[in-house]
Write a structure and sequence with these properties.
By secondary structure, the chain is α+β, with helices and mostly antiparallel strands. The protein folds into three domains: 3-64; 78-407, PurM-like C-terminal domain (Phosphoribosyl-aminoimidazole Synthetase, Chain A, domain 2); 599-756, PurM-like C-terminal domain (Phosphoribosyl-aminoimidazole Synthetase, Chain A, domain 2, Alpha-Beta Complex). It has 25 helices and 26 strands. The strands form four sheets. The protein has a seven-stranded mixed sheet, sandwiched between helices. A seven-stranded mixed sheet has the order 21-23-20-24-22-25-26, with helices on both faces. It has a six-stranded mixed sheet with strand order 1-2-3-6-4-5. The relative contact order is 0.12.
Length: 756
């Protein structure tokens, strides 16, 4: 029996004696998002009314953000196994096999997360803490953090004084400030601007790590861990981020702005930099002494969430003393200490014989107490055989619950309506005035140069960057000193298509992300997803989510690539009911066996054939041109056999040594891809252009535009030769001439005002 069954000294939240209406009102007044049926389920599981600490603990753990209660069962449809998968989506991050070097097998650790609600409310801090959290997820697998990426979705930024512009600027500055300070290159990302994100920005973040596969550290208490120490490391706990998990699982309301701001954590990238270096030192010590341990990031749910999950996932319980937790303020309530989501904290499960040395490394060798107020590493509890979760505070037991109830699977079976599938129509394409449209397309907010945005990021800080962000369709690193192995990273997800057909948008996100790593010479080895949708309690919104999951699953299986990590972000909806466009954002990791074979997109020389490899379907649905012209058109359809063949042709051209340049075709179509290849050549000092003859240069059906040295060396089945490179900086399109310098000026300007 729990001691709390008889000890009533702990403050209790009444559940059993109240009617539903009164209970709902009391829960709202207490600042928790638990429903009446959930509150009664908690009381039944505990055999009594919960304490205030237990109330907030369950509020965090049973939130959508932590439990995925309305989405987890759908996510099981995704393929998560394959020959390249080392660790699927079971822990803090997934791991894929990169290759072997000097007798060691190396894995790439990847995690994908969102920080949408915090970034809408406090853009700089919200985005910065998003980077901080995703870096911890990768670090806790025993990996060296090697890169980050940031897929972003902003509202309309045209108005100088608009809140959307304020958010767009603050988010980018927050990502830059944090990523640059911790010394991790920003390798990839994308950004779209759409009215559907005026009320709810999307800030998705990705991180990569490198680890020897035999040195992976897991985020669960290891076998035989009964009696081991639970060690908290990092920043002193403060009130920031209290209620953050619940806040991220609710619709934003401007009327609650003060409370919302309090739910956003405060970042400290300089402390994080020290924590990372100290943790690398701990890794080395544990490996040298062959000591097994558990390691986990403190994210949603704070100390409670992290310690409960690391214990229960190992089959154990845990007992913690909140008095041993380092705090920033005196007299913090027990619930705040337990559940607050203060940044820059980590948690170890250690055998007692290793604890003293770990504490010495953090506190003495890396001097945490001297770097931030009351920062340190300290023993705060122990792992128990009894599967209960117990918290003590000032000599009193304030929480004692079955740990499997606290961390177990909570499932909501919500009704949904099947999303209406897009069906191809018979609309005839309008006559397109290429001369008038090309400058408009290049100046479109979703096509224009992103350099004013990402120039704030340090993309080469570790000295391992081969292709920095903006130079190609994917960023590329050579992460292992002395090895020829390379890793590519790309992201994708088009909200214009998502607003039309969520399943098609999800499929296209997988296709585009994989194409982008193929275009730089890599083999796709793993995927992650971040699924950003509205209120799942609205049948149409949940239906859109389900359709997107099915689209991801179908595309991944067709391409033979598994999902190893991901995130779900729901309730991205204004109080007035405006949901974001269905936004399945996908990241793809690719492996390069020889970094010398990396492909760049800039045109290389005059007289080369230009090959269009991919679908030639004349469809404009979801395209930039369709938006500019204000027309509705059918979406392009996907032929997966043709898609696999296209990727194989690009690979064959690279292996045959005839592939000079390659860029994927996406936003803005073939002509935009060609213009960017000319811009890339211009940036390298080569005054080159091209002449092409192609029927629909703005179609975004997807594929590859390639410059080759010898088309005769390839099997050109399904390939269209559309033109030839020129020894002058001009594009001649179906007889119409454009000067590359003039087009570059148009393309470079639009975002320079938003990001001066």
């Amino acid at each position: 029996m729990s001691p709390l069954a008889s000890d009533r000294a702990a403050t209790v939240f009444p559940v059993r004696a109240l009617d539903d209406k009164t209970l709902a009102a009391r829960a709202e007044a207490a600042g928790v998002a638990l429903r009446v049926d959930e509150l009664r389920r908690i009381a039944d599981a505990c055999g009594r009314d919960p304490t205030i600490v237990e109330l907030h603990a369950f509020d965090a753990q049973w939130s959508e953000h932590c439990s995925y209660k309305s989405s987890r069962h759908f996510l099981r449809r995704l393929p998560t196994e394959g020959p390249d998968v080392v660790l699927g989506p079971a822990e803090d991050s997934g791991i894929v096999h990169l290759g072997e070097y000097d007798g060691e097998r190396y894995g790439i650790v990847i995690a994908h997360e969102s920080h949408n609600h915090p970034s809408q409310v406090v853009p700089f801090e919200g985005a910065a803490t998003g980077i901080g959290g995703i870096v911890r997820d990768v670090l806790c697998m025993g990996a060296e953090v090697i890169a980050v990426a940031d897929p972003l979705r902003f509202g309309r930024v045209e108005e100088r004084t608009s809140h959307a512009r304020h958010v767009a600027r603050g988010v980018v500055d927050g990502i830059a400030a944090y990523g640059n300070a911790i010394g991790v290159p920003n390798l990839a990302g994308d950004v779209y601007f759409h009215a559907g994100f005026d009320d709810n920005v999307l800030v998705n973040v990705v991180a990569l790590g490198l680890v020897k596969e035999r040195e992976i550290i897991h985020s669960f208490a290891p076998p035989g861990a009964q009696g081991w120490d639970i060690v908290l490391v990092g920043k002193a706990t403060d009130p920031s981020g209290f209620g953050g998990a619940s806040f991220s699982s609710l619709t934003l309301d401007a009327a609650d702005s003060d409370a919302n701001r309090g739910a956003v954590q405060v970042p400290d990238p300089f402390l994080k930099s020290v924590l990372m270096r100290a943790s690398y030192r701990v890794f080395a010590m544990l490996r040298e002494k062959k000591i097994v341990a558990g390691f986990k990031d403190l994210g949603a749910g704070g100390i409670m969430g992290c310690s409960a999950e690391i214990a229960s996932s190992g089959g154990y319980g845990a007992e913690l003393n909140l008095d041993e937790v380092n705090v920033a303020l005196d007299d913090l309530p027990a619930a705040v200490i337990a559940v607050g989501e203060t940044q820059e904290r980590l948690l170890w499960v250690l055998p007692p014989e290793a604890t003293a040395e770990v504490l010495r490394i953090y506190n003495d060798e890396f001097t945490l107490p001297a770097i931030a107020h009351n920062a340190r590493a300290a023993i705060v509890g122990r792992i128990t055989a009894e599967k209960r979760y117990v918290l003590r505070h000032r000599g009193e037991i304030v929480m004692d619950v079955p740990i499997d109830v606290l961390t177990g699977s909570v499932r909501d079976e919500l009704p949904y309506v099947e999303a209406v599938r897009h069906e191809p129509g018979g609309n005839e394409l309008p006559a397109l005035d290429v001369e008038a449209l090309l400058p408009q397309v290049l100046a479109h907010r979703d096509v224009a140069s992103r350099e004013p945005l990402f120039r704030r990021y340090d993309g080469v800080v570790r000295g391992t960057t081969v292709l920095p962000r903006g130079m190609a369709d994917a960023g590329v690193l050579a992460p292992i000193a002395g090895a020829r192995l390379g890793v590519a990273l790309a992201v994708a997800g088009n909200p214009r298509v998502g607003a039309i057909d969520p399943r098609a948008a999800a499929e296209q996100a997988v296709l585009e992300a994989t194409r982008r790593v193929v275009a730089v010479g890599a083999r796709p080895i793993g995927l992650t997803d971040c699924l950003n949708f509205g209120n799942p309690r609205k049948a149409d919104q949940l239906g859109a989510f389900v359709a997107a999951v099915d689209g991801l699953a179908h595309a991944a299986r067709e391409l033979g690539v598994a999902f190893v990590s991901g995130n779900v972000s729901l309730y991205n909806e204004s109080k007035e009911g405006r949901a974001v466009p269905a936004s399945a954002v996908v990241a793809c990791v690719g492996a390069i066996a020889d970094i010398g074979a990396t492909v760049t997109p800039g045109l290389k020389r005059a007289g080369s054939p230009l090959l269009w490899i991919g679908s030639r379907e004349l469809a404009l649905g979801g395209s930039v041109v369709a938006e500019l012209l204000g027309i509705e058109a059918p979406l392009p359809q996907t032929d997966y056999a043709a898609e696999r063949l296209a990727a194989a042709l690009v690979r064959d051209a690279r292996e045959a040594g005839v592939l000079l340049a390659c860029r994927t075709v996406s936003d803005g179509g073939v002509l935009t891809a060609l213009a960017r290849m000319a811009f890339d050549a211009r940036a390298q000092g080569r005054a080159l252009g091209a002449e092409i003859d192609y029927g629909n240069p703005f179609c975004e059906a997807g594929g590859y535009l390639c410059e080759v040295s010898d088309a005769g060396a390839l099997d050109l089945t399904g390939v269209l030769r559309i033109g030839t490179t020129l020894a002058e900086p001009a594009l001649i399109v179906n007889g119409t001439r454009f000067e590359v310098d003039a087009l570059h000026a148009i393309w470079s300007q639009p975002l320079s005002e938003v990001y001066p």
